[in-house]
């Protein structure tokens, strides 16, 4: 990563003399005016003048009295002899970067100065309130819509019918095909078939990409160096995959019983397990569920609500309930069902 040092160049803002050396010529070689460090720029790569002195002192300081640049170590301005204790450093130019094989052209000083001037004259933009107002309006609209569509009104409903259902879920011990990485194949797997498969990827170094960078040192010189970084490509990492069969309990069927009136007895269906134990084809129960549903009608609209068994049994045909109904969609909210006994 060797670094080379070159002269920046500058133009005289008074007489128009161009491409003077920023480190060597601190005054205009034509009219004698002091150098203005804001008129420094990068030269064309092919016209660059090397600086052999390798020590970089640091960015120049600007004389507060006459605005001419002085070496960082200077105590008094060499143009007007004013003390430099309060002096500010020159503003560094932005770093330039080119890919390998591309060359640096001369920087367009006029274009840069025009851009800086335009930036200074641009009206300082305050963060606008427009966006916030707009967001607030949308939020209010959304909240309003949610409120509007969730309005409910209370109404009465009467029982028109009953239904119930009971379900026994039944599992069967069966051979099930499955697949896993071979190092995590479950115990009891059989008929195992191994094969190679992509398990992950890794990054592998694959040459370098390089670019050239030139950086303003602020003392009338710039340094140019080559910066390289390693390129990577991703490469698959293979692992051993296993397809296998394993005997497992899996859902196989349900034994369902149901009825549609209050009078018939509520019973569980016969689960009729084929064989119990842990043989292939053996069956076992895995959970029972039951559901009691009331047929209701409100304003000529029929609907069903699932309720607790005790309420279901205590609600004969014609029993009256209070229930809330959504005003926009007309659907009854079963969670609000309560008896009208008061
Ligand atoms: Zn001049
Ligand atoms: Zn001065």
Written overview of the protein:
The protein is mainly β. It has 3 domains: 1-125, no CATH class; 153-165 and 289-339, OB fold (Dihydrolipoamide Acetyltransferase, E2P); 166-210 and 234-288, no CATH class. The protein has helices at residues 109-121, 130-149, 309-313, and strands spanning 3-7, 9-10, 20-21, 40-41, 61-62, 69-70, 88-89, 96-99, 152-181, 190-216, 221-259, 283-298, 301-307, 320-326, 332-339. Strands 1, 8, 9, 10, 11, 12, 13, 14 and 15 form a 9-stranded antiparallel beta sheet that branches. Strands 3-2-4 form a 3-stranded antiparallel beta sheet, with no helix packed on it. Strands 6-5-7 form a 3-stranded antiparallel beta sheet, with no helix packed on it. A hairpin with a 4-residue loop joins β10 and β11 (221-259). It starts with a strand and ends with a strand. The relative contact order is 0.17. The model has no long low-confidence stretch (mean pLDDT 91). Residues 12, 14-15, 17, 28, 30-31, 33 line the site of one zinc ion.
């Amino acid at each position: 990563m060797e670094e080379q040092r070159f002269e920046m160049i500058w133009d005289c803002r008074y007489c128009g003399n161009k491409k003077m050396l920023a480190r060597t010529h601190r005054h205009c070689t034509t009219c004698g005016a002091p150098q203005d460090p804001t008129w420094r720029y990068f030269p064309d790569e092919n016209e660059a003048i090397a600086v052999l002195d390798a020590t970089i002192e640091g960015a120049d300081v600007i004389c507060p009295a006459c605005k001419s640049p002085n070496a960082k170590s200077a105590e008094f301005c060499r143009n007007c002899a004013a003390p430099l204790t309060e002096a500010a450093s020159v503003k560094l130019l932005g770093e330039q970067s080119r890919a390998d094989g591309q060359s640096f052209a001369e920087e367009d000083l006029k274009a840069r100065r025009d851009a800086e001037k335009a930036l200074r004259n641009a009206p300082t933009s305050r963060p606008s309130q427009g966006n916030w107002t707009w967001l607030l309006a949308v939020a209010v609209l959304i909240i309003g819509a949610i409120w509007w569509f969730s309005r409910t009104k209370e109404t009465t409903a009467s029982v028109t019918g009953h239904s119930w259902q009971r379900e026994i879920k039944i599992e069967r011990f069966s051979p099930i095909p499955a697949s896993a990485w071979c190092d995590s194949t479950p115990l009891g797997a059989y008929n195992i078939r191994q094969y190679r498969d992509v398990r992950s990827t890794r990054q592998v170094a694959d040459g370098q990409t390089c670019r050239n960078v030139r950086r303003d040192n602020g003392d009338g010189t710039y340094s140019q160096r080559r910066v390289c970084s390693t390129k990577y490509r991703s490469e698959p990492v293979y692992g051993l995959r296993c397809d296998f069969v394993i005997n497992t309990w899996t859902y196989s069927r349900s034994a369902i019983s149901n009825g549609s009136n209050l009078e018939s007895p509520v019973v569980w269906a016969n689960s009729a397990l084929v064989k119990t134990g842990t043989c292939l084809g053996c069956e076992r129960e895995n959970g029972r569920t039951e559901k009691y549903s009331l047929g209701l009608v409100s304003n000529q609209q029929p609907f069903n609500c699932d309720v607790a068994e005790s309420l279901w049994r205590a609600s004969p045909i014609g029993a009256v309930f209070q229930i809330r109904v959504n005003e926009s969609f007309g659907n009854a909210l079963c969670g609000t069902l309560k008896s009208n006994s008061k």
